[in-house]
């Protein structure tokens, strides 16, 4: 019997994460993901394509049924020598525009990152980004998951001092600009958000 991954009513990135979790748990096999919107359908299909799985989509009324097949012989394995990635987060919101939306997007980004198979080596928080690493932040749980998975989490000490938050740091460690520069320069790739 085919496995059903019911993602009706779930917002992105949850349908992709639920799909990934299931396919990570099996060597090979087939499952049908059920979603109720075009964006989720497209994102689940991209996930399948990026992992060399086959995907077939059927629409029935307002629902999309995405049948995905994982064949162990076609799956590409992660390179054992994954590049060193540093992500620099300089704000507690993601993107420009509406602050409420930016806060929601940052929380969603960190959640998706915590569920990702490919994790950064370092997460560096600067300026307003340090507000994400202190008690009371909506992102603490996701950052703690990343910390447990071995991601190095650093907050700028000067920035924590500026905002009066040094005593409230809840995850990771305090660092300085020299160390930040060294980590960025020694990484194979650095992304700034």
Walk me through this protein's architecture.
This protein is an alpha/beta fold and 193 residues long. It folds into 2 domains: 68 residues, Translation Initiation Factor IF3; 108 residues, 3-Layer(aba) Sandwich (Hypothetical Protein Ychn, Chain: A), CATH 3.40.1260. It contains 6 helices and 9 strands, in the order βαβαβββαβαβαβαβ. Strands 8-7-6-5-9 form a 5-stranded parallel sheet. It has a 4-stranded mixed sheet with strand order 1-2-4-3, with helices on one face. Helix 1 runs parallel beside helix 2 and helix 3 packs parallel to helix 4. The N and C termini lie far apart (44 Å). About 3% of the residues have low confidence.
Brief overview, please?
The chain is α/β, with parallel strands linked by helices. 34% of the residues lie in helices and 24% in strands.
Largest sheet: 5 strands, parallel
Give, in order, the helices and strands: EHEHEEEHEHEHEHE
Q: Please report the distance between the alpha carbons of the first and last residues.
A: 44 Å
What is the quaternary state of this protein? single chain
- Report the count of strand segments: 9
Structural class label: alpha/beta
Count of DSSP-assigned helices: 6
Low-confidence stretches at least 5 residues in length (pLDDT < 50)? 76-81
CATH architecture name of the largest domain: 3-Layer(aba) Sandwich
| CATH topology tier name of the largest domain | Hypothetical Protein Ychn, Chain: A
CATH H-level superfamily of the largest domain: DsrEFH-like
What is the CA-atom radius of gyration, in angstroms?
A: 19 Å
Number of domains: 2
Please state the overall shape, judged from the principal axes of the Cα atoms: elongated
Mean pLDDT over the full residue set: 89
Pfam families: DsrE, TusA
GO molecular function, one term: transferase activity
Organism: Clostridium autoethanogenum
Protein name: Sulfurtransferase-like selenium metabolism protein YedF
């Amino acid at each position: 019997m085919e496995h059903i991954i019911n993602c009706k009513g779930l917002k992105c990135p949850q349908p992709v994460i639920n799909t990934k979790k299931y396919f990570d748990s099996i060597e090979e096999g087939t499952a049908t993901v059920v979603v109720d919107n075009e964006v989720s359908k497209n994102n689940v299909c991209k996930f399948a394509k990026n992992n060399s799985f086959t995907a077939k989509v059927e629409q029935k009324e307002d629902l999309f049924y995405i049948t995905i097949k994982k064949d162990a012989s076609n799956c590409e394995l992660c390179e054992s020598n994954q590049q060193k990635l540093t992500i620099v987060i300089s704000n507690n919101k993601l993107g420009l525009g509406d602050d409420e939306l930016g806060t929601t997007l940052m929380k969603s980004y960190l959640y998706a990152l915590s569920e990702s198979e490919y994790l950064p080596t370092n997460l560096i928080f600067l300026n307003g980004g340090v507000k994400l690493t202190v008690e009371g932040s909506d992102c603490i749980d996701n950052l703690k998951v990343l910390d447990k998975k071995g991601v190095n989490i650093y907050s700028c000490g000067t920035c924590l001092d500026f905002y009066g938050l040094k005593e409230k740091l809840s995850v990771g460690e305090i660092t300085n600009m020299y160390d930040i520069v060294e980590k960025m320069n020694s990484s194979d790739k650095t992304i700034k958000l």
